[in-house]
Structures are given as structure tokens and as C-alpha cells.
Fold this protein.
Amino acid sequence: MTLAAGSFVLAVGFLAWACVSPPRVRELDERFRMLGFKVSRGTNHSIWLGNPLEAEMRARLRKLHLPVNVPWKHEFRSGRSFRAVLVRYSGRFSHDELSGLEAELVDAAGNVVRLLSVHSGRYPSDNEYIKTWGLPETWIDGTTSYDLRISLREGKDLAVVDVGKLE
């Protein structure tokens, strides 16, 4: 690959980053830090450990045989197809509190869809956690906008994410 082609790929990546706005996140407790978010559908779910846009661009450049390092990706595979909500986060709470977060989808009318905890992971060196919640495809119709509310088991809300319509 030539330098011009590599530059073109980087320029396209920058434009994609500039034109795509990430979900709006409101952190409600200063001790909680949301580092990444992704909604996935199917049986293979993953989230980058680092900036997702940069990671995707680096992975694409790597496929073009350019010498770039690609960040780690946390992957979770399930035997059944479902919609997954993956969140990467850290915080100044106990391990038990951070590993036991709960999540629910809330629509504008206040209707709540409680998400099922299906997977979690921890990266102790970075004090980062990955939590995956799932819901069957039939629970969501694709026409309603939702907020994702993340809370401790005791009910203390930590963050709200405007996820929009889950299609």
C-alpha cells in the first residue's frame, strides 16, 4: 500500500469520526466513568478497549498490511441470537458494586424494559469493567426511542445514555 492510499484511509476515517455523533451520556455520579458503549445484534458481540473509532481505523489499516498496533477487543459469543448492550466503564466503587451493575431501557412515557445481565469481564490492570446486558429481539419494536439507565444494585443511578431507537 502506498503512503497516499494510507493517507486517504486516515482522511476518510477522520471525516467519519467528525460526522458521527456518539450517544449522549449523562454521568450522574462523579465516581462513575463510562468509557464505551455499543448495541450489538446476533451471536458475536464485542467492544474495543480504547477509542472505538481509532480502533476500527487501526484494524482496517492493519488489514491493508500497514504496521499499526490495534487495541484489544473484548469479545463475547452466545449460542443464541439476541440484542446485546455492552458498556465499558470504571469507577471509584468496590469491585462488588462495579461488577453488579443493573441496566434498563426507559422510553419517553416512563415505561421500563429491564435488561438481563448475560456477561461481564474485568481488566484489573486498568480498573476497567465490561458489562453485557441482553434482551430478546421481540422485546423491542424499533419505533421507540430509549434511554439506557445504569445503576447500582441498591438503585442508585450512575448514568443515563440516550440510545435512540434500537432497530
Q: What stands out?
A: The beta strands are 24-27, 32-48, 73-91, 102-106, 112-114, 116-123, 128-135, 145-151, 157-165. Residues 1 and 43 are 34 Å apart (CA to CA). The chain is about 20% helix and 50% strand.
